[in-house]
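Please check this today:
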Amino acid sequence: MTVGIGDALKWYATYTPDKAAIVDGDRQFDYASLWTRSRRLCQALSRLGLKSGDKIAVLMTNSHRYLELYQVAAMLGVAIVPLNFRLVAREIEYIVKHAEAKVFIFDDQFRALAEEARDTLRDVTSLFVVSDVDGYDDCLGYEGLIDAAEESFELPPVNLDASYFQGYTSGTTGAPKGCDNPYGSFVDQLKRMGALYEVRTEDRMLCPAPLFHEAPTLFALMQLLCGGTIIVTKDTSPENILALIAAHRTTWTMMVPTMWATLGDSEALGTTDVSSMRMLVSGGSPLHSSTKNMLIKSFPTAGLNEFYGGTEVGLVSNLGPEDQERKSRSVGKPVFGMHVVLLDEEGVPVAPGEAGGDLYWWRYVAPRVCEKSRGNGIRSSRGLHNSGGYGAV
């Protein structure tokens, strides 16, 4: 039996109901309230016609609602399609249509963008929900849906093969590729990550990296699956990040190199108590050596991890604290369950010390590339997959 996201939430709500699950500004949600809100939203969306296999497009900044929606998706058997809020209307229209999302949920600050795309989406999207204000016209309000629903709702059976996360690449190799992660595969990866990073129920994760990216979502959901607390914020300023670390005594965080570099430029770094931090995680691109050295010096109690991965594959490898200075420019070792090989132009494995080759990967349960995206940037050889990586042993 696979213990999934909904199972874990129910367990924590039953046995640690008062433990803080998500802190968002001045609002705090314990596991009992997160379970109740998620169940009510499940009923509300089901009552409006959402069913297993459907998809929810999300145009939101970081908030407790974003994380809540992933609990709902797991329990209903639907998929989240996160949208980068830096996209223009035509790009949003392309992704939502390509994904055939039945529901579109957005923050009020993106109302103009949502309204611009709305008319062209009506043939695929039947339900529009604004997340952080009351509903208006024919757009429903997120909190109103929860308030009007009941918790007594029989959840559908869990389908491990159902789509759960359908992320889209940036489109640098053509139109954005839709990468469909089945629920079972996604949960399996969360568990492997929890073991790799030794995440505990006592941990307090700071989540400032945008949740429309897959990596911050993976790490945040990993923390909830392990029963800890997430401090979520949409304010990525160094001053806010450091203030939250000190105020909540956070134990770890995941950010991208540009965020780490900006943090290092802040004068507040030298005067803030960061002694509660035990782990730093970076991904998205390599850290500059100067940024890496700054982090090791400024966070002496925290081990630095750098991971390599992608929307098409998830986590591929990790460079742990023990190798940061010994293998400074490395992407680390393959994570458990992932197999990596470098092939030359003839498809022959590259030996250690030889010139670099294309990086191919496979894992026990791989994500699926949406049928309509096939042939758009992902290559295969002998059952292995390549999405543009190149390296040397």
